[in-house]
Fold each of these.
Amino acid sequence: MSLSTGPIFMSGAGHVPHGPGMTTKIIYFMVNGKLEKAEFGCDCSAADVKDLFRAAAEVEPHHVLKMYNWRGSVVNISPRLEANTPDSCYRLEAVASDLHSVPMPPELDSMEHRLNHLETKVIEDVGKTPDAIFELKSQVESFKRKLESVKHLSWMGLFKGDGNQHLPKTPLKARTPQLSVQEEHQRVRMKFLNMSSLQVTGEVRELLKTPIFDNWQWEEAEMLVLLQVMYTDLDFLTAFHIELEVLQNFLFQVYCHYNNIPFHNFQHCFCVTQMMYGLIWLTDLRNKLGRVELLIMLTSALCHDLDHPGYNNVYQINAQTDLALRYNDISPLENHHCAVAFGILSKPECNILKNLSSEQYKHIRGGMIKCILATDMARHNEILNRFKVLQPVFDFTNREHKEVLMKIMVKVSDISNEARPMEVAEPWLDCLLQEFFNQSDSEKLKGLPVTPFMDRDKVSKPSSQTNFIRFVLLPLFTELTKLFPCLEQHILEPVRRALDYYSDMERASKEVKEEEEEEEEAKPPTGGR
Ligand code: 5GP
Ligand code: MN
């Protein structure tokens, strides 16, 4: 899958115009699943050509690039690379990276640097490293090793323990070390604006309307283009007089306001919005609800976790954070997500609602507030029970009925990872547990009550999922499926398969545990007589 042929990578072309007679070479190659085209003058240096392909692969200087020809042989990346056609394209891979160059947090690096400097000075004066400095250096070194070896700190991007088996799927942005967060955002913005939604193929547009869409294949700039496609293909630009530039500014600001944390990040925002988009098409809601209601639902999904800090409401309340204080312990996070959304919309250049009447604006604002606040899982039963009562007599023209349905649709999208194919869903569970464990570790460190379902000592992947699917997902999805029977195959069946998968996993791990306990009991007692 790709956004069709990507941008053209050119070396030197921007700086050194190739004069007449100077030959340029065109190389077609596949990288990260996309067909790309590189163009460079034969006078280019080998280093320039390597840099060009490094940029195309979007890797950092310490990655090793390997180019394969159509026969599968490795070829040298140099100006002498043979020109080719799209049919005989090369394949470019970033095959290895020197993990030692993953940067440490700046504070630690600067402490180490200052210690080395101090050591040099002291050696000049005293002739040897004093014990105190030696000890400090060992402590810094051991702390660095700990950062690299403690699994639950892996979200910091420093973990080297398990061969980085989830590396291709981790949603944590592999930020270029030299770039600040702002620079990284600008890089994504430029890439987003340089792509055209016209590059999104019909095949991708169709996949985007289904729960089998694989978010892991797309980088952030591409997800922004896909979000733009969702707004365009639902005719929102025409219906609400949204200028493309304003939509792009809005989407970019939404992207900037998600944090780089294990689960509640921009990728989660994308998945929830994409599921909402899919549900709208699958249930033919375009012919059942007004365009305004669809805009409320899609935009609520997009904004529903803005600026999530990675710690849930219970933590906010127990730790008496600024958010809990500001919102008096009442859904502090959801209130914050919504307030951030309207903060973004308050800037005219981002305000996709600016060409609407004040009545329409008020209606949309009210709808979004209701939908986003409904994502607080503490209100799950309240909202589901309301829907259960209305479902048998559901009336698409009744205002209250529509409001409850919209909340249910946002809630379903929010917790719909298990409705996706297993290979898409399972990495999301790893991310969620990482965030859960970070929270329970903090709770333990701060002496706060430890949230049991987040405790790494009590929770496992299968136990977490079997309970969540049985008691939360199946009851919710079943109720929505009663109103839209076609959803059975699209969301209920995959969730039932996931329950079987995690039940088997739970059984297997219980058996292993029992065997281990039996072996332990069978061992002859050691030590005493
Ligand atoms: P969110 O915080 O994303 O708005 O609300 C959804 C909440 O539901 C998550 O924070 C998380 O607690 C829970 N949740 C969502 N998906 C799953 C899942 O697949 N497994 C489990 N155990 N909990 C989930
Ligand atoms: Mn969410």
Amino acid sequence: MRRVSIFGATGSIGQNTLDLIARAPDAYRVVALSGGGNIDQLARDAISHRAEIAVTAYEDRLPDLKSALAGTGVEAAAGEAALIEAASRPADWVMSAIVGAAGIAPGFAALEQGATLALANKESLVAAGQLLLATAASHGARILPVDSEHSAVFQALVGEDIAEVERVIITASGGGLRHWPIEKLAHATPEDAGAHPNWDMGQRITIDSASMFNKALELIETREYFGISPAQIETIIHPQSLIHALVGFRDGALMAHLGPPDMRHAIGYALYWPKRQDLPVARLDLAQIAQLQFEAPDLARFPALRLARDVMEMRGGAGAAFNAAKEVALDAFLAREIGFMDMAAVVEETLAALSKELTLSNPLETLADVLAMNHLARVRARSVISVQIKKT
Ligand code: NDP
Ligand code: MG
């Protein structure tokens, strides 16, 4: 029996992971499940999957979780330290699917105990890429990408030599506002940006898709995970989201990975790797699809893509700062303090402010350095936002 833990179990990726695990309950022993505020879901899943422990990220919700689990034999815990403790419990396979920088530390704890880390939390690679890979290597642990584009690249590279890769092309749907005239984008609300044409995902990543901050994070992830240079990483808008990524080789061959927009494919690939198993995902009917569309992204519409280039060049602490500023800008957009296009302006100004006080390209040596940079960039982004609000 494989021992598995799922961090962010109550979210979109977490629920899809549990869906796959529930199809072969005898094959798995569920060690830990974590959630945030959705205590009912967390308790229900912990009971039905007979988890050893359920952890909510929020300490003030512990009494609710305890009462929901009373008499079931499932341990209840809460808070950041409890998440780390749960991630340190021996497991063979750990899903990292907490949203945001809060998912970074549990991923490190899972690698340190030697588990295979199925990585959906893109913020981990963006903020701590080099350190995360080094931690995996020094503990004999493996990181398998779950973000669909990176799973696609990973699959296209099976049996290939990375040295022969000429370029990697990450596809982007263009998000929910792709058809909006550029002048109107400044007035987009969280509701406008929170609907995705193809994928059913959490609210934050859906809005990040509309602003292409999601794609920006994915370009940085590609640079960090596969170790290829920024000049070799491209992005193209492909509104149908059927090709998830393409890998071009030195002989001009381009390998594309196609599949329906269903995250259970990428999750299942990471769960069964290095084998493949039957998966309950739709099969593509190419005759019915008939055509695949592509267009070049407009950098004026999507300034996040331009910022991602700078971050990929700088590396070091730039990724942690970029991600933290993006998270704060997204919070402010959700709170209607700033507009849709202001998010990129906030991130750009935060990076500029930080560059005046420190060298962003300096490597982050420890997890504490990553978390300190995350904290500092959040504080600076908040001040950038206060200045912006005063101006308007
Ligand atoms: P959701 O918003 O659906 O779920 C997020 C999960 O994290 C929930 O379990 C939530 O708990 C928990 N959570 C929220 N805040 C905190 C916190 N501060 N501390 C600890 N846990 C917290 O997100 P998704 O499932 O969409 O995304 C998860 C990660 O995977 C993100 O990093 C995203 O970028 C990435 N990803 C997602 C894809 C998708 O298709 N959804 C595709 C590729 C990558 P609760 O709901 O109980 O509050
Ligand atoms: Mg993706």
